[in-house]
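Before a colleague's protein record goes any further, I have to sign it off. Thanks in advance; the entry in question is below:
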Amino acid sequence: MSVGALFVSAFIIGFSGAMMPGPLLTYVINGSLRKGFKAGPLLIVGHAILELILIVLLLLGLNNLFSNQIFTSALGLIGGSILLWMGYGMIKSVIKREISLEGQVENKVNIAGLVLPGAIVSISNPYWVLWWATVGMTYLAKSHQQGVLGTGAFFTGHILADFVWYSFISWLVVFGRKLLNDRMYRGLVALFGIILIYFALMFMYDGVKFFIFS
């Protein structure tokens, strides 16, 4: 497979993963409501940094660790706990009426405050690790046959799909924000908090089930 073909195919396959509902999508929507369009791209910067580190680790031969069920189950427990805390924080801010549409987007955007959660939400999802240990590792092996250029084309195409999709989601949220009032806004934040808690409990359940019944 040529370098160009690697880029295009990685871009297309990247969309198949990016468009799937999950904690990152939920967080991008919530961040866009709070901080505006920049939230989506900045959260994906954190996601991209994490994936770049992961690719380096996989190339160094740590793919066995990422496909180890003990590791992914433990990650599910830890990551689930983090998502549970995030979801609780969102619901708490609604109950205490700490959030409002008034002035939300005008607030100064804390770059680190969006980049870091992008990485945390991603690594909290054990299915993200599982994807990279299986599909991602297989594709990475093919791209590595073309050397640094092949690996770079794969990563660039893959992460570009994430940037395009989540930037589009942010734009949709900011555009639709004009149709919201405070009550609807708080309702959405509470809903996203509940969704994060759902993912948290699902990840933690899988981890507990493995350690208890295996």
